[in-house]
Amino acid sequence: QVQLVESGGGLVQAGGSLRLSCTASGRTFSSYVMGWFRQAPGKEREFVAGISRSGGNTYYADSLKGRFTISRDNAKNTVYLRMNSLKPEDTAVYYCAATTTIRVVTTIYDYDYWGQGTQVTVSS
To answer: Exposed site from 5, 12, 48, 64, fewest CB < 10 Å?
Structure first.
């Protein structure tokens, strides 16, 4: 089992940047595929980005390619989400999640463990 804690959210102006972090407990972080999701008010939780166990493969929601970057540091048990050129529509609670699947997956049902979320608010 793994526990996930997100940090790094906050209020930022449109066009700005943020880096979210998600730190996992336990010694087997490198055995999990990791993902970031987000949920805006009144909307379903949606996939943002995913990264393979080694960090060698990444996958993004089509609408976010080029602005968001996912990375991980297995030595620090941490996965990151760098968000650039933020827009008001990026406002949401951002969640990290872990799964024992072999490949990066994009649906919420494939992920076994979730963090509590961190709020990102982008002002216009």
So the answer is: 5
- CA-to-CA distance for 88 and 60, rounded, in angstroms? 19
Mean pLDDT of 97-111: 94
Spatial distance between the Cα atoms of 52 and 33, rounded to a whole number of angstroms: 5
Cβ count within 10 A of residue 73:
13
The per-residue b/e assignment along 50-69, b for 16 or more CB within 10 angstroms, e otherwise, is bbbbeeeeebbbeebeeebb
- Residue closest to 19 by CA, chosen among 77, 84, 64: 84
Amino acid at 60: Y
- Segment 48-66, tens digit of pLDDT: 999 999 999 999 999 998 9
